[in-house]
Design brief:
The protein contains eleven helices and five strands. The chain is mainly α. It has one domain. The strands form two sheets. A three-stranded antiparallel sheet has the order 1-5-4. It starts with a strand and ends with a helix.
């Protein structure tokens, strides 16, 4: 569960400025690659999964998805064999969208692979050990987040889009991320997360701001883009927040 940390009102402008153990098959054993048409069909299948099993509050019907997982498996099968040539032809936004979708879809698969279904925190090695085939490689969820998304791209808002399958985490969006819509989708994810008490809450009586520890854990990602050098000025506009 993501905990909240307490900040003084001097850091409020940073937030408002942004308003973001199973073995996998060895990909090297197959020379197949997915076509543009098949990948688009897989994205359509993943969209059907999200529309059907994720409600407006970001809650997932895992039992229903476990019974009808073919479309999720179709998507995860397609992203496993995306070729370097195809990946390198995408612009940065499409590449980011690809990895965020992969992280979220593989998180769903990790949960429904369990029988009976259990809390993600009870799945041994779900983030650091469990390997998934993706883009011709084997990666853990931590690899995707920390060695790919955070290293290859300067986009802190991914932290409001990657889901950890807990109530206090950012909501799972009920549509795939797409390169052409990524900026608007990520902005909406940040705003939606900050609108939740788990993401951001002001106690005016105590003069304190509570924010998700996501902003503390990944402060080095957020501050270069959304940090404010002058800090909190205490003017009327800022006090009214």
């Amino acid at each position: 569960m993501v905990k909240k940390t307490v900040l003084s009102l001097s850091l409020i402008s940073l937030l408002l400025g942004g308003c973001t153990i199973a073995s996998a098959p060895n990909p090297s054993e197959t020379s197949a690659s997915v076509s543009d048409t098949d990948l688009e069909a897989a994205y359509d299948a993943y969209q059907q999964v999200l529309e059907t099993y994720v409600d407006a509050d970001g809650l997932v019907d895992y039992a229903g998805l476990q019974q009808n997982r073919e479309q999720l498996d179709q998507f995860n099968g397609a992203i496993a064999v995306v070729s370097d040539e195809m990946y390198n032809s995408w612009d940065e936004a499409e590449q980011i969208a690809f990895w965020v979708n992969a992280y979220n879809s593989l998180t769903l698969a990790s949960i429904i692979d369990q029988d009976p279904i259990r809390d993600i925190k009870e799945i041994v090695g779900v983030w650091r050990i469990r390997q998934h085939p993706i883009q011709g490689q084997s990666k853990t969820l931590d690899n995707i987040e920390h060695q790919t998304l955070r290293v290859d791209f300067n986009e802190p808002r991914i932290h409001a889009a990657l889901v950890c399958a807990a109530i206090s985490c950012p909501l799972l969006r009920n549509e795939p991320f797409r390169g052409e819509n990524l900026d608007a989708q990520l902005e909406d994810q940040v705003q939606t997360f900050l609108a939740k008490a788990d993401g951001f809450w002001i106690d005016q009586a105590e003069g304190k701001v509570y924010i998700s520890t996501i902003f503390q854990w990944f402060g080095e990602d957020w501050i270069p883009t959304y940090g404010v050098e002058s800090g909190f000025a205490g003017n009327e506009a800022e006090r009214s927040v």
